[in-house]
Automatic annotation (TrEMBL):
Gene Ontology cellular-component annotations: cytoplasm
Keyword Protease among UniProt keywords: no
Transmembrane spans: none
Keyword Transferase: yes
Protein name as catalogued: tRNA N6-adenosine threonylcarbamoyltransferase
E.C. number: 2.3.1.234
Main location: cytoplasm
Length: 333
């Protein structure tokens, strides 16, 4: 099968062609980071306008790089949600227009299913499989017993981990998006500042990051009152140590308690070097097979949407011509 994927849920306009659900023929990503930087975050109106300007060009480029035409494609898979509604609509409408014009089946993909399926572009998935999803809007543990079916066994009760990274970075005066900046700084510092670990109830797989974020802000504030200024690298290292300890600790407990032997990591924060190292080490120790996508497949891209769409194609899960952008779309069905 040849699937054309389209992703416009946030601030990346992307189109890709994937063969057999596993092989990337093209994956064109246009990032808008520069346009949102001076506002310190994604501005929805600006995001939508960029998608409108970019989407046709990106689609043409994806087909050209894959050396296929629209007629060769078996189906068009597009991110249906969650995301910014105005941004989603650009991708959904582009996909519908192409599907209608070429009489091709249309597939509506959940953005987080896409992040998880980025791993299948690296290595075949085996079930039962646990996914640690860490992105700008999500922090979840997702259990899968077969392709295309998802059970969320834990999720954040407040901030997503990427959101916490971006807020702490802003407090330190680092430019948007702050995650990669903190990651870089953390490698140069010492985790010398005592920060809380949000383990929650002993049996919970849920996460919480707003307390940690506030603790960082309070620590900086109190130090300032005393006329001190902790080294930003030490703040970054201490924050990252807390995040990584809880994420890895909960994930490995879920692996043990659910008897899972196969783990994947997904989402933008999976690009974090500290987290990649810690999870890799824990999995080696536990004898668990782990896949982490390369950096370019961790952040938003359309190849992952095409990969998730490919299993929906096999299952005959097609969208009707009423497909719409769903900002609050649920992963479980
Ligand atoms: P969602 O996927 O939940 O809808 P999103 O698509 O906005 O949200 P992604 O694009 O998957 O999120 O990830 C972006 C997030 O990843 C940002 O918060 C960014 O700061 C964070 N991030 C990217 N690289 C790193 C890194 N090396 N360390 C920590 N965080 C990172
Ligand atoms: Mg993004
Ligand atoms: Fe994402």
């Amino acid at each position: 099968t040849l699937i054309l994927g389209i992703e416009t849920s946030c601030d990346e306009t992307s189109a890709a062609v994937v063969r057999g659900g596993t092989e990337i023929l093209s994956n064109v990503v246009s990032s808008q980071i520069e346009s949102h930087k001076r506002f310190g975050g994604v501005v929805p109106e600006i995001a939508s306008r960029h998608h409108v300007e970019q989407v046709t060009y990106i689609l043409e480029q994806a087909l050209e790089e894959a050396e296929v035409t629209l007629d060769d494609v078996d189906a068009i898979a597009v991110t249906e949600g969650p995301g910014l509604v105005g941004a989603l609509l650009v991708g959904v409408n582009a996909a519908k227009a192409l599907a209608f014009a070429k009489n091709k089946p249309l597939i509506g993909v959940h953005h987080i299913a896409g992040h998880i399926y980025a791993n299948r572009l690296v290595e075949e998935l085996e079930f039962p499989l646990l996914s640690l999803v860490v992105s700008g809007g999500h922090t979840e543990l997702v259990l899968m017993n077969e392709h295309g079916r998802y059970e969320v066994i834990g999720e954040t009760r407040d901030d997503a981990v990427g959101e916490a990274y971006d807020k702490v970075a802003r407090t330190l005066g680092l430019p948007y998006p702050g995650g990669p900046q903190i990651d870089k700084l953390a490698a140069e510092g010492e985790a010398s500042i005592d920060l809380p670990r949000a383990w929650l109830e002993a049996d919970s797989y849920d996460f919480s990051f707003s307390g940690l974020k506030s603790a960082v802000i309070n620590t900086l504030h109190n130090a300032k009152q005393r006329g001190e200024e902790p080294a930003p690298a030490d703040v970054a290292a201490s924050f990252q140590a807390s995040v990584v300890e809880v994420l890895v600790g909960k994930t490995m407990r879920a692996v043990r308690e659910r008897g899972v032997e196969r783990l994947v990591m997904a989402g933008g924060v999976a690009a974090n070097r500290g987290l990649r190292e810690a999870l890799t080490g824990a999995c080696e120790e536990a004898g668990v097979k782990l896949t982490i996508p390369p950096l370019a497949l961790c952040t938003d891209n359309a190849a992952m949407i095409a990969a998730a769409g490919a299993v929906m194609y096999e299952r005959g899960e097609f969208a009707g011509d009423r497909l719409n952008g769903e900002p609050g779309l649920e992963l479980e069905r």
